[in-house]
Amino acid sequence: MSDTAVSPPSYQCGGCGARVEYAPGTAVLSCPYCGHRQQIAGAGREVREHAYADLGRLPRQAAAHAGAHAFVCPGCGAHTESDALAQRCQFCATPLVAETTMGGLIAPEAVLPFAVDRAGVRTALGKWCRSRWFAPNSLKKVSEAETLKGTYLPHWTFDARTVSDYRGQRGEHYYVTETYTVTVNGKQETRTRQVRRTRWHPASGTVRRDFDDVLVPATTHLPEKQLDQLTPWPLAEAVAYHGDYLAGYHALRYDTEPETGLATAKARMAPVIERDCRSDIGGDEQRVSSVDTSYFDVTYKLLLLPVWIAAYLHAGRSYQVLVNARTGEVIGERPYSAAKITAAVLAVLGLVAAFVVAYLISR
Fold first, then answer.
1. Do residues 117 and 29 lie in contact, with contact meaning Cβ atoms separated by under 8 Å?
2. What whole-number distance in Å separates Cα of residue 166 and Cα of residue 361?
3. Which helix (H) or strand (E) holds 197?
4. Per-residue pLDDT for 337 more than 50?
5. What are phi and psi of 267, to 5 degrees?
6. Structural contact between residues 97 and 246, judged by C-beta atoms closer than 8 angstroms
7. What does the buried/exposed string (b/e) look like for 328-361 if buried means 16 or more CB atoms within 10 Å of the residue's CB?
8. How many percent of the chain have pLDDT more than 70?
9. Of 71, 139, 141, 116, residue with least CA distance to 305
10. Rounded to whole angstroms, how far apart are CA atoms 162 and 69?
């Protein structure tokens, strides 16, 4: 069942009456026709962290059971339904932004607004294409995206204080003298050498670590591994959520629950905690057999991160790329040149052959 139909904010230009949308890298809404700019109301509110312990008391429902948002377009009056948090009206392109308090879902606390605009995407895409090793020469000419969609992707962030009790072993190196024989000109000679050994000692202790903004994707629409490649994000530049930052862009709502997100966050904390354990053990080598971690003062927030989802056409095939809309980082698919790869392999084999011949001649 969908939410009750609501009329989204009217993003009407105060200058010419057309639509306004968020202007990347600013705190204003801008009209693409007359250039009129309107300040985003409420910009500057402090971003808050929410206590994870209070999560169970929220009047919420599972994301999988949440109904679609029902929109009434303020531009043309069309009624539409969508799972998106923000989009454009499919009839008149008016920006539509859902009321976040509806649907029983956790509302976004913060947003990292777009900073890279469409022109910046073209520049980043062209640079990325020209820097690909073993790519066809024709790829260097690609600078335009066949399709381009600015999208806010939901992520959870988690803070926590951790206390970890560990058990393991500390390895300390020592050296012994070893005697061995070699044959030189048909005669055996006795020689010695220093051989490293490791002496192991039991070790245990406690380490503490505070984690801040451990980032976990809250959408399954794109692979987690792919989204992780867009890091790092300048999370310190995130601002308190306001729907105006979404105007003119697509925004997904979360489909990964915060409980699942916290489990993933703990898995991301674990390697850091293990490194702390190894550092605390000391010595020349370490073995960690067990780590028991307790988590305190866990907080969370829902954060929207800006990504350009683009596709470019090359040799009759479409390739998808993602562009970090804050840093310009590009990741994605690319074609390979079989001729360049073959030439590189032959060149390496030629060098190896040359070294072998030189070695045999010098003997």
1. no
2. 58
3. strand 187-217
4. no
5. -65, -30
6. yes
7. bbbebebbebeeeeeeeeeeeeeeeeeeeeeeee
8. 83
9. 116
10. 39
Distance CA 279, CA 283 (A): 9
Per DSSP, 235 falls in state G
Structure tokens at 315: 């040799």
The encoded tokens of residue 310 equal: 């683009």
Mind listing the pLDDT tens digit for each residue in 157-172?
999 999 999 999 999 9
Q: Is 5 a residue whose pLDDT tops 80?
A: no
Q: Say if CB 152 and CB 318 are below 8 A apart.
A: no
More confident position, 234 or 77: 234
Contact partners, residue 60, CB within 8 Å, separation at least 6: 104, 105, 106
Find all residues with CB under 8 Å of 144, minimum gap 6, and list them. Answer: 122, 125, 312
pLDDT in tens, 87-144: 998 888 889 998 876 668 999 999 999 999 988 888 887 787 776 564 445 444 545 5
CA distance 348 to 355: 11
Q: Which tokens sit at 121?
A: 């995407």
Neighbours of 85 (CB within 10 A): 26
Asked whether 202 and 169 are in contact (CB, 8 A), the reply is yes
Which residues lie across from 282 on neighbouring strands? none
Q: Report how far apart, in Å, the C-alpha atoms of 148 and of each of 96, 169, 194, 352 are.
A: 18, 54, 63, 46
**pLDDT score recorded for residue 133:** 61
pLDDT tier for residue 345 given thresholds of 50, 70 and 90: low
Please give the Cα distance from 31 to 17 (Å, whole number).
9
CA distances to 200, 201, 202, 290 from 172, in Å: 6, 8, 11, 20
- Give CA separation, 50 vs 70, 154, 242, 301, in Å: 28, 16, 17, 6
> Which pTM value belongs to this model?
0.84
Per-residue tokens: 355: 């070294």
